[in-house]
Design a protein that fits this description.
single chain, mainly alpha, 2 domains, 4-stranded mixed β-sheet
């Protein structure tokens, strides 16, 4: 595998790269604009807005992942304005970059350019588009894929820039979500220990080592500057209590069910393994070739994200592996046109299947079976949401009721000029109300994933964190939206009954904090 001259690539392939980026950007933008699952659709929306108002994750609101996306979202908001258009631009831009990067890697591995084009377009359809909006699992997986691509190009070209940037993509992935980066770091440490031992490439090792060291030092410096003193507790200690519970659930997985759900990933992954094992048997020195280490990298990446998918509670989001794995299989059969065409057709058919299941039906946001034609313009809620077609599972038959309720809630809370909290799944309301709403946790799922519940060993830590926010910001009122059904326990489990009084209206539960508790 010989690296092409970069200038020659750009001269020959500029138009193809433009097509891939344009298609990847706008297919994500199109489907991302359809429907909402508020807690996922807007996961980092208010977080980005709050950072612009000097409220930082771990310091001012509890988080368990997604720190890097919060700051990245804030950066996009700073440049382009706080709006739905910027939110969807964020994820569409990432989809374009990762799809172009896939094409760039494939042609550098000598896959024919038109094959690379088709595989990259198929990849883009199943990459960020299944979610459409910035989401923690997607960002984590794609930064990790960029790290894997960088290592592949580093091995092929021995260009120092790839050794230098690879750890940064790893770091971005780890700061986005602890897994699957943690899994792959362990696997890559083993792979590159063997690689550097066999290749005796001291310069590459030093580039990798010093780049990693610089990234770590920079992160520590920024953490100190921003005052993110709770990052170790919230980002590393507390999530372990979630992870242990999910590891226990592995015992409940049935092999037949697992294969059924992931067969279109497992089959090409197993085929790739067989092809490389055959090369090991056929060629005595294959274990010492670049091709073998490239196989180990892409195979390890696939295993890491597959394992993460098994442990996560979200919809399946890793079908982008299908066209990617078929592309790497095709590299073995480039001279055989019939096999290449067969692989292309199979990959295309699988892509279309999952496109209709996930993109057209918006399955990732639980909108499968919902009549998306009933959606209404989200600009009815606020002009900043222009472009979004609003319909959610909870109000699939009457989106206008949900919109009118939100308008009432926004109007009511906006008129309250006191320091306040809003606990909600609608993670865009802070930016719409345009005031500081000191929500103590980024999200409020009640399964123990978002913040510590009473039976968690870090409950007292969150309790102190919660009350400190109330005291420090002189909070007068805490609002819950009745239609969401968020339990009052999110307040009453962390405040003594003598500290508040409660009242309700048609849409809101309102806790008034008493002065004696401040």
């Amino acid at each position: 595998m010989v690296l092409f001259n970069i200038k020659k690539i750009l001269n020959v392939h500029t138009f193809i790269i433009f097509i891939i980026f344009y298609f990847s950007f706008f297919i994500n933008k199109h489907f991302g604009n359809i429907g909402v699952f508020p807690i996922d659709t807007f996961l980092h929306y208010d977080s980005g807005y709050r950072i612009l108002n000097n409220q930082y994750p771990t310091r001012d609101f509890w988080v368990t992942s997604g720190i890097f996306i919060d700051f990245l979202e804030a950066g996009f908001f700073k440049l382009l304005g706080v709006s739905w258009s910027t939110h969807i631009f964020h994820s569409s831009f990432i989809n374009g970059i990762i799809s172009v990067a896939s094409y760039f890697v494939l042609i550098n591995l000598r896959l024919e350019k038109y094959y690379s084009l088709i595989y990259s377009l198929c990849f883009s359809i199943l990459a960020y588009t299944v979610s459409g909006t910035p989401f923690v699992d997607h960002h984590a997986a794609f930064f990790l894929l960029l790290a894997t691509y960088s290592f592949i190009l580093a091995i092929v070209s021995q260009n120092k820039i790839y050794w230098i940037i690879a750890p940064w993509f790893f770091g971005f992935s780890l700061l986005t979500k602890q897994v699957p980066a943690s899994y792959l770091i362990i696997l890559f440490l083993i792979i590159f220990s063997i690689y550097f031992y066999l290749k005796k490439n001291i310069k590459a090792f030093l580039y990798l080592f010093y780049s990693s060291l610089f990234f770590i030092v920079l992160c520590i410096f920024l953490i100190k500057i921003l005052g993110l003193n709770n990052i170790y507790l919230q980002y590393f200690l507390y999530p372990q209590t979630i992870g242990l519970e999910r590891l226990e659930n592995l015992k409940k997985i049935k092999l037949i069910s697992f294969f059924s759900h992931h067969k279109f990933i497992l089959i090409p992954l197993f085929a790739l393994l067989i092809l490389n094992v055959a090369q090991v048997i056929k060629k005595n020195n294959f274990l010492n070739t670049n091709n073998f280490f490239i196989f180990l990298l892409i195979f390890s990446y696939s295993l890491a994200v597959l394992f993460h998918q098994i442990l996560t509670k979200n919809q399946i989001y890793i079908y982008f592996l299908c066209p990617l794995l078929f592309a790497f299989i095709n590299i073995f059969f480039q001279k055989n046109k019939m096999v290449s065409y067969f692989l292309l057709v199979v990959s295309f058919v699988i892509t279309i299947k999952f496109h209709f299941e996930f993109n057209e039906n918006r399955k990732f946001h639980d909108l499968k079976g919902v009549n998306l034609k009933n959606s209404l313009s989200a600009s009815l809620i606020d002009d900043s949401l222009k472009g979004l077609k609003w319909i959610s599972l909870s109000y699939k038959d009457n989106p206008s009721f949900e919109i009118n309720s939100l308008r009432h809630i926004i109007d009511h809370i906006s008129r309250d000029k006191n320091p306040k909290m809003l606990i909600t799944h609608y993670l865009f309301l802070s930016s719409v109300i345009k005031g500081n709403i000191y929500t103590p946790s980024r999200v409020y799922t009640l399964d123990g994933v978002s913040f510590p519940l009473k039976d968690n060993k870090y409950y007292n830590d969150y309790n102190v964190f919660f009350t400190d926010i109330i005291n420090k910001n002189n909070i007068q009122y805490i609002y819950l939206i009745k239609e969401e059904g968020i339990s009052e326990d999110v307040v009453t489990n962390y405040l003594d009954n003598s500290c508040f009084t409660k009242k309700e209206d048609d849409h809101l539960i309102i806790f008034k904090i008493l002065k004696k508790c401040i």
